[in-house]
Write a structure and sequence with these properties.
It is a single chain. Helix content is about 55%, strand content about 0%. By secondary structure, it is mainly α. The protein is flat, with a radius of gyration of 15 Å. The longest helix has 20 residues. It is built from 4 helices and no strands. The protein has one domain.
Length: about 100
């Protein structure tokens, strides 16, 4: 859910490439201590890392303006993110998608 929100924020400002780069950021990509046998990344740390990535993309783009989602490819990508989110939300409405949740 936080990945979709981050992508929508970036797409609102017309940052299509930056939004596509968020697809490469996954939960558990980073170890907390840098060791493979150490504790894995928590959901809160993952959400914080995604938020930092979004802020980094905003700070590196000087030409981003709100409302630039009206461009054709950006609009299509935005529509796809919303459709994927709705599809995921409807299919997982009775089950939690996190493995550590247990529900």
């Amino acid at each position: 859910m936080c990945k979709a929100a981050g992508k929508l924020k970036l797409l609102e400002y017309g940052l299509l490439d930056s939004a596509n780069q968020l697809d490469n950021v996954n939960l558990g990509d980073q170890d907390v201590r840098g060791k493979e046998d150490g504790p894995k990344e928590t959901v809160e740390a993952y959400e914080k890392r995604l938020d930092e990535q979004v802020r980094l993309h905003f700070s590196s783009s000087s030409s981003a303006r709100r409302g630039d989602y009206k461009d054709g490819p950006v609009y299509q990508a935005r529509k796809r993110v919303i459709d994927d989110f709705i599809k995921t939300a409807q299919s997982n409405s009775k089950r939690c998608s996190r493995s550590e949740c247990g529900a």
